[in-house]
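Homework help board

Subject: predicted structure for assignment chain

Our instructor gave us this sequence and asked us to write out the predicted structure in token form, then describe one feature. I got the tokens but I'm not sure how to describe them. Can anyone check?
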Amino acid sequence: MEIIACPKCGSRKILQENQKEDVLKEYTTQDVCMDCGYKGTPIIFDDIEKYKDFLETLKKETKGD
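My token output:
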């Protein structure tokens, strides 16, 4: 099972936003986190345990701030 998550907050609410490129007159997509607004490449985990470990690391990092 593939899990897609935001590298900034860990949310799984990732959507693709369409953007129009004026120079090429083409549409491109960009991944956007619906919880924190991060725009960029999400992290892809291949199992739930790795995702849970990542969330624990995020919690520890935010407590240190």
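Reply (TA_rk): Your tokens look well-formed. For the description, you could write something like this. The helical segments are 48-64. That's the kind of observation they're looking for.
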